[in-house]
Structure formats: structure tokens, C-alpha cells
Amino acid sequence: MKIGNRTIGGKNPCFIIAELSANHNGDLKVAIETIRAAKKTGADAIKLQTYTPDTLTINCDNEHFKIEGGTLWDGKTLYELYGEAYTPWEWHKQLFDVAEEEGLICFSSPFDFTAVDFLEELNVPAYKIASFEIQDIPLIEYAASKGKPIIMSTGIADEADIQLAVDTCRKVGNNDIILLKCTSSYPAPLELANLKTIPDIKERFGVEVGFSDHTYGSLAPTVARTLGATVIEKHFILDKSIGGPDADFSLDVEEFTRLVNKVRDTERLLGQVSYEISEKVKSNRKFARSLFIVEDVKKGDILTKENVRSIRPGYGMHPKHYKEILGKTFSKNIERGTPLEDSFLNLTE
Predict the structure, then answer these.
(1) Model pTM score
(2) Per-residue pLDDT averaged across 205-225, rounded?
(3) Quick one: 167 and 316 in the same domain?
């Protein structure tokens, strides 16, 4: 599967997405600077969110629409929060252009049919379905019908929800599906991450799998990569001092750069299944054990445990031959400290 010019999965490097979200804080200049900064961190992509308060909810302040429950946004109505957080649609074209200039892949999360139609006009290379939309089957079906890769966060989904979302994509002929393990808590505590689910998702649903992270720091994405995540998504902010709804659990430039470097180092560490010995390691085999003559011996002497030992360095015969050569006789006089060679022995005796 390809997103833009990047192939996802297999032996390819992890696809790292910087989530802009609300971290422009309502300022187009900040949004542009954030995209340029994302490129410097080593991110592969920048992701937007395409909605307005009216495409997500209604302007109502009764108890159903008030945010409560210990979140960062308690006391606000949904309409108020989304009014603060949304990315104006008139910015999108310019933000996509800036991303292209920087060599970043740019795509977005649509939250209704009109957003999908709008993003189609911008020729997005993929669609991201947010955690809280994974139950919006009509939206998933409509986005998947456009034939672009579909990335879906699973933060509020149980197994049946995930299966239904995957089946919905496949029903319209779209098999380019990436599921992101996600914990829809902002910020997310480490003990709720359950990263062992990552390989299970891949096996259970037969899709590419990644991780959408809301924990603090970069430990969780690094561990996720070791468990097979081929996509990492993390909120990115130019500077936390600008504030905003998502600033608390976003990474700034220095932190995101550290995340990218840790993931890339992890990929180097993981490497591939191999029993080959590198040339550098081969050169160090001289420090391994081998059979050495440890006492002066004369022609005709018997090879014993006293005059031949398995010691470092590795210039002599392989120690696997030790038992079979015990009792053989030497064919010449040899000084202590000489690597044992088969030519030194009367092997036909």
C-alpha cells in the first residue's frame, strides 16, 4: 500500500505522522510554521482535521453537550471546543501547498460527507478516520469508496466495532486499511496503552497496524515500533507556550525530533532475521576460543589435557575437535603458545 510516495509496511521505514490538530491556535502563520517545523523533525507526513463546529455537533448547552469527566476541556460545550480547535477550510489549500514544498505528505481526517468532498478536490492521498468516528459507518463507507488508503484509530472501538469498520471498507472494494491502536484518553496513562494488542490487530484483522499516541513523551511510540507498528501518529506543536486544546499532550519540535530519532534507531536495532555474521564481527572472531599448545611438546608426544587447551585467542583449531584429537601424537616439536593445526598431529594413528 502506498500513501503518496511512501510504501507502508513490510521492510519499509515506519510512516511517522505529525498531527497538527488544533495546535495552530487559530493562527494561519502558526499553522504554516508548524508544517515547516514538522519537516525538520524528520516526520514523513502532516495531518489536518477537516470539520467545523456545525459539521460535528450543534450549538446547544444542555447537559448532553457539556464536557465533563476529568478531561482537559471540562466545562466547555462541544460546540465551544470545536469552535476553538477547528482548522478553517479556507486554509487547507495553502497548508497542502506548504507541505508539498517541504516534501511532506499531507492528508486529513474528514468528519462528514462534505469534508470528504472538499478533500477530494484537494486530491488527498489518504483518509484518516478519528477514534470517535469509527462507529460512523456511513462516513467510513463514503471515504473508503474514494479508493484511497483508509487509516482508522480504534480508541473507543471494541472488537466488533473494528470488524464492522474493516468490513465496511472491504465491502466497497477498499483493502488498503491501516488500523491504529489508540487509547482515547487525553493524555493517556501508560497502563492503558496495552501495546501488546498491536501484533494481535494485524493477525486478527489482516491489515497494516500502527499506533496513535496520546501518552506523554516518546516511549510508547518507540515500544510500538518494536511490536510491529508501521505507522506512528503523534500530536505536534510548534511551541507549547502558545497553548490550545491539545498542547498538553503534544510534542514540541525538540521532543518530536527525539521521537523520530528513537523510532529510526529502533528500526536499525530490529534489523531483520539473520544468522549471518558481519565482516566486522568476523574480524573479532580472533578473540574467540580455539585450541592452543600450552606446553612445549616434542615429536611423538601424546596430546593431553595438560598440553592442549581451549583458550583465547581464536587462531587455532576449532574446539569442537578437542575430544577426537586427545591421545593423538605430535608430528613435530612445537613451542608453547602455538595455535594447534591438524598438520601438527599424526591423525592416521
Answers:
(1) 0.88
(2) 95
(3) no
